[in-house]
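Feature request, filed as a ticket because there's no other form

It would be nice if the structure record came with a short human-readable summary line next to the C-alpha cells. Right now we just get the raw output. Example of a typical job, pasted below so the devs can see what we mean:
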Amino acid sequence: MIRITAGKDKFRRCGVAHPAAPAEYPNERFTADELEALLGEPMLVVVVLPDGDASSGDVGDKPEKAAKK
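Raw output as currently delivered:
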C-alpha cells in the first residue's frame, strides 16, 4: 500500500490530484517510474507501507520508503 499526502490540496502528479489528507493506493496503482517520480517530489509525502499496515492509521516504525516534504 502507498500512502500519499500533498503539501497543497489537489497537487497534481502522475495524473492524480493528490489531497492534503493522506490517501492510500494499492501497490500496483503506479508504475515503477511513477513511484520514483512521486518519491522525488518535494510537495508530496510518500510512504510505501509494508503489507497489512494499510488503513491502520499507523505508519509503523519502519516504512519502506518515505520522501520528505
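Something like this underneath would help us a lot:
The two ends are 19 Å apart (CA to CA).
Residues 32-40 form the longest helix (9 residues).
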